[in-house]
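[09:14] KT: can someone run the structure on this one? pasting the chain below
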Amino acid sequence: MTIDNKKQADGITMEQAFIRKLFLITALVLVPVGLATLSGCAKSSAAEKSSVAAKPAVPVTAADVTVKTIPVQIRAIGSVEPYTTVAIKTMIAGEITEVHYTDGQDVKKGDVLFTIDPRPYQADLQRAEANLSKDVALLKQAEANVARDEVQSKNAAAQAKRYNDLFTQGVISTDQNDQFRTTAEALDATVKADRAAVQSANENIGADKAAIESAKVQLSYCTVRSPVNGRTGSTMIQQGNVVKANDVALLVINQIEPIYVTFAVPEQQLAAIKQYMASGKLEVTATMPDDANKTETGTISFVDNTVDRTTGTIKLKGTFTNSDRKLWPGQYVTASLKLTTQADAVVIPSEAVQTGQKGQFVFIVKPDLTVDVQPVTIERTIDDLSVIKDGLKPGDKVITDGQLRLTPGAKVDIKNSISDNGGIK
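[09:31] RB: done, structure tokens below
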């Protein structure tokens, strides 16, 4: 019996036999492949576990969450302005014969700046003094005339009275009596004229004295002096130029000790500013833009009397002694107005605060030296510190550097930590 006949006798057709053979061949091929795949997966999982276990800790720096007394401040960009700005002009006309300073020099009140040719004004003064001398001589002459004519008038009056008595007795004629009376009256009028001349001479003397004072003032204007302590700018009119009275400015002097810092704050802050100003002077600090460590401290000396409607702000001025001249006119600074202080404020270094899609957060260090993400609410920022309103408590430790390599649950190695006073320990 042949094989085919035997398969048919067993009830299996040729097609069924072919399928069985194909299945057996496939099984023989796939089973080893599957076993190899399972073995590879097991090895990969073990390698990943080994890699995770061997992943090194991320080096970071950290800082403690602390409690401090923090100033409550209003910050704004301010500009430095001179305490006084004086444009020096001449009060008289003439030629500038000498300049007594150099550009950018410090001058004191009363220092000589310019000299204007004084000769015309010296001549005016001498003329006024000569007129005074002449009128004084005329006064003396008039007073002498009064003295002489008063004597003559008294004598004439006595004669007129005596001859009038003789006329009454019929001793002399009417013509003689009238002659003596007329002479007495003429001399009396002369005395009155002399007294008027004396008064006129006195008035002329007064005018002469006023002219002398005016000439002295005009002569004094030939020497132009500094009216304030300050620093000179560039000379606008050089030696040899002829200037007019009260024309162009010869020089501008800025007083920079003390000095002003002007800045504007939102009008919503006005009520708080007025409230704290009622208790005393408010402190304001000016920080230089090039160096945060360069600061000057002053006090608020001016609050504008109106709010700027276009910006919704109100202008304030702080006065600074500026003894070391850190502040310079025209400079921009950061003005910090201190209203009061907040005790027991929870603070962290500002570099610890990160910003994500859900808001601000920090990486907090857990006791097992792993980190977790902690959302925080920042009340305000003071210098390099952030005041925490919610999310942290004193004693927590936050990451201040190395956050880019961190994920929740990551192991950290704290290389150093920032102490309470901001230093490194």
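[09:33] KT: thanks! The first helix runs from residue 3 to 10.
[09:34] RB: yep, looked fine to me
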